[in-house]
Amino acid sequence: MKIEFTYRFEAAHRFLNSDSKACMTPHGHSWYASLVLGFKGQSLNSSQMTVEFSALKKEWRHLIQNTFDHSYMHNFNDPVIEVLQKGEISPRLIPFPGDPTTEIIAVFLFHKMKTILKNSTHQSLIDVHAIILNETPTNKIICERDFYQSQITQYSGFDGWWNSTHVDDRSFRVL
C-alpha cells in the first residue's frame, strides 16, 4: 500500500550550465511536490489505518511551506546569491551542489524525507517510495528509490540541508 501527500509551492531557480538557454535566466514555477510513502506492514492497525495521516504529512507540509515556498533554488556557485544577500530582505535561498534541475530537486527531496523519517516513530512502518515533482502542469519527474540510490552517492563531497532532520535547515557546505 502507498500513501501520497501533495503540496503546492511557488519558487524560482536557474541553471548555470544547461542545454536550455531559457533556464539560465532566473524564473519561477508553481510546483506541486508529492511524497509517496510505502507502507511496510501487511495489516492495518486497530483503527483500520496504515498510520494516522496527520502524523506523516506534518513534516512534509512544513518542509514545503516553510522552506521551499517562495524560495530561490540555486547552484551553490551562482553569483546572483551575493547580490540577493546584500538586499534588505533575508531571501529564502536553497543551495544545491549543481544546477537545481527538477530531477535533482526531486533526488534531494527524497533524501531529505528519508533523513527525517529515520527519526520518526513510524520508521518501521513506512519508507519513502517516490517523490513526484511537477514543475509545470505538463512536466513532472517521478523519482523512485532505484533512481535516487543511483544518484545521491555522486554528492558525497557536499553536506547540507538534505542531511539534516530539521525541516527549516537551508545549510550547505563543500566537504
- Distance between the ends: 38 Å
Low-confidence stretches: none
Which radius of gyration do the C-alpha atoms yield?
17 Å
Instruction: Specify the structural class.
Output: alpha/beta
Give the overall shape, derived from the CA principal axes. Answer: elongated
Number of strands: 8
Report the total helices: 4
Lateral arrangement of strands in the main beta sheet: 4-3-1-2-5-6
Q: How is this structure best described in words?
A:
The chain is an alpha/beta fold and 175 residues long. Helix content is 26%, strand content 33%. It contains four helices and eight strands; from the N terminus they run ββαβαβαββαββ. It has helices spanning 53-68, 80-85, 102-117, 145-152, and strands spanning 2-13, 27-39, 71-75, 93-96, 126-136, 139-144, 158-160, 172-174. It has a six-stranded mixed beta sheet. A two-stranded antiparallel sheet has the order 7-8. A hairpin with a 2-residue loop joins β5 and β6 (139-144). α3 packs across α4. The radius of gyration is 17 Å and the shape is elongated. The mean pLDDT is 93.
